[in-house]
Amino acid sequence: MQIQSYLFFDGRCEEAVEFYRRTLGAEVEMLMRIKDSPEPLPPGRVPPGSEDKVMHASFRIGDSVVMASDGRCQGQPNFQGFALSLSVVDQREAEQRFAALSEGGQVQMPLGPTFFSPCFGMVADRFGVSWMIIVPA
Description:
- By secondary structure, this protein is an alpha/beta fold.
- The protein has two domains: 6-69, Signal recognition particle alu RNA binding heterodimer, srp9/1; 84-135, 2-Layer Sandwich (Signal recognition particle alu RNA binding heterodimer, srp9/1), CATH 3.30.720.
- The chain is 18% helix and 34% strand.
- The chain has helices at 13-24, 91-102, and strands spanning 6-8, 27-33, 54-61, 64-69, 84-87, 106-112, 119-124, 130-135.
- The protein has a four-stranded mixed β-sheet with strand order 1-4-3-2, covered by helices on one side. A four-stranded mixed β-sheet has the order 5-8-7-6, with helices on one face.
- Strand 6 (106-112) and strand 7 form a beta hairpin.
- It starts with 5 loop residues before the first strand and ends with a strand.
- InterPro entries: 3_dmu_93_MTrfase, Glyas_Bleomycin-R_OHBP_Dase, PhnB-like.
- Keywords: Methyltransferase, Transferase, Ubiquinone.
């Protein structure tokens, strides 16, 4: 059994995938646009003019696969009640990844030592996805 994250970017999926490729070294494994669906979507499922939006994507960050979509393309992604945790090897990498994810985002907890990690911090990226960056103790 396996659990994987599926993120709905509500019209900004391609931009998000490119951001994660640039900042985290994400490797795109699959990206399908709405217009390339093997079956037509029911009317009203996505707004007209959204044919080039992402119906489904999967990308690898390290050993993990994250799946994503533009969803209903309403332009208002809402990521609440969870965070993605990114374990890195050392403080230098934590600082680099934290700074990259913070670009256009919002720091929720600055990087620093905690009782459970020599370096831990929390940030919501420019898309509103919350990340916890941690160097394991």
